[in-house]
User: Fold this.
Amino acid sequence: MKYSIIIIIAGFIALSAIFNACQKDILEKYPLDQVSSADFFKQPNDLKIYVNQFYNDALLPVFWGAILGNPYRGGADDYNSDNQINGASIDVCLQGTRTVSYTGRVGWDYSYVRKINYFFDNYKKCTGDFKNYQQYVGEAYFFRALIYFQLMQTFGDVALLTTVPETNSPELYEPRTPRNIVADKIISDLDSASMYLSDVKNDGCSRINKWIALAFQTRVALYEGSWEKYHATDAFKVSTPQPEKYFNKVVEAATTIMNSGKFDVYTTGKPTSDYASLFIQRDYSTNKEVLFWKKFSTALSINNNKNYQQEYPYNKSITKELADSYLCSDGNPITDNPLFSGYTTITDEMKNRDPRFYQTIFTPDAPWMIDATGTKFWKDVYTNLNSATKFNAPSGYVLRKGYDPLLVNHNLNYEETPSIYYRYAEVLLNFAEAKAELGTINQADIDKSIKKLRDRVGMPNLNLANITTDPKWDFPTLSPIINEIRRERRVELADEGFRWPDIARWAAADELIVGKRPKGFKGSQIAATLFPVDENGFLDPFKTSLPNGYGFVLNRDYLNPIPESQIVLNPKLEQNPGW
Assistant:
């Protein structure tokens, strides 16, 4: 029987301590097997061992998956969007060709729910002062929130369980809990997490702390607030929407982080390189922008193959739509801007632009590989784009973000470049967006959020009283400030796994996905191209395979289908809209 909630072994559980990155006691696997709760959960270290298993890539995806197009990494949510192309492969969600049998990164799987609730059913057996183990209770609250957020994002309404039910318990056969009630429980769990977790910033890679829980809370609350506001009249609406409640929670949690004085935007005063260098550092222990990160060690066989994969495009490339989002250096859009030098070459395109453009997408003069023999440049790669599989970049724009050209830091297929889970820039963007959605944003709010991100790269501040109208705004029916904050979010968080969740919560597939095809740079820049071009000469890799653009189904494809097998087991679950 595959019904995952019912698979419960009363009183016993197999414990496997899954290593986290930075601390030796977490890197070790503990030889615990078939341990009775009567014998376990007695000492604080027992609780620590138990929660270690949740520090894993299934629950904490890292951004470099955008490069690989790997659905088990957070960056894949940029690949499944209007930000990135993966060769000739058309995403089935964007194309609207999924079936009820579709299984994504997060399935209708309650094994993690059962494991985390087993902790809550047993942790009070621990002897001693609560202050000696409240950290691990806080971590459990954080991970339960994370588990349920992933389920809610994927399926909407889900079965909300806070204990391990007995086999055949009636609650196993109840209808799904409405998503807004689930969201409230997630936020409540994060309130508990932030209360119990340490408020010490620590090294950011060993254990969850209060600030990480609050940062995650801003993400959750912004997602649900936006979903309730922008899906208010479609098939995915909630019965009693209260978006303002969630936006206010974003502001509250973000303000607490911002006022702590513990975090700031990383900068060394080098606007032409600081943004790019943030993502290729070897250690973030003292970095004030990075709240939580993963450390890799080839010696311990905890490997990251990010840089190896990025040495060649391997079908992965950035879309023209993302490239066009970058403002000119005067802080205004490229449309009708005399500073914009046109599309003849990618070098022309990057002139007088937001420096994040050429720190996210490779310029021909950027270093490609640096070793004892000297330096090779990306102009050698651009010359060969589309000429062979490893040089194949269907849009022409090759992702730079997160790549370190120093080959000494590579180790064959594996290396040790860390990956970032949460950074302060997202908190600032969440704050600004929530304030804008509430209609209460002012210039002081901009100055302590958006301005910090623009200062790092030497861009002019966003002037709330004088926003230049862009005739090509993605959302012409929304206010100028909403459009510009969404643009800022897109370019600052590009290829970190945020783009599809943003499109989903904004109900924006009608503007950005349906009937659209991703484009690339001018095909004339490449001597021999494997991909067709459109009527204006821009690379158009899906011109033949997707003549009518993406076929995303608006009243169905924002959520995944519930597996039929689960509905057979519990008919009260019902199916998601459109399936």
The first helix runs from residue 24 to 27. Residues 1-54+107-197 form a domain with the Serine Threonine Protein Phosphatase 5, Tetratricopeptide repeat fold (CATH 1.25.40.890). DSSP finds 23 helices and ten strands in the chain. The beta strands are 12-13, 35-36, 84-86, 290-294, 316-318, 367-371, 374-377, 410-411, 414-415, 419-423.
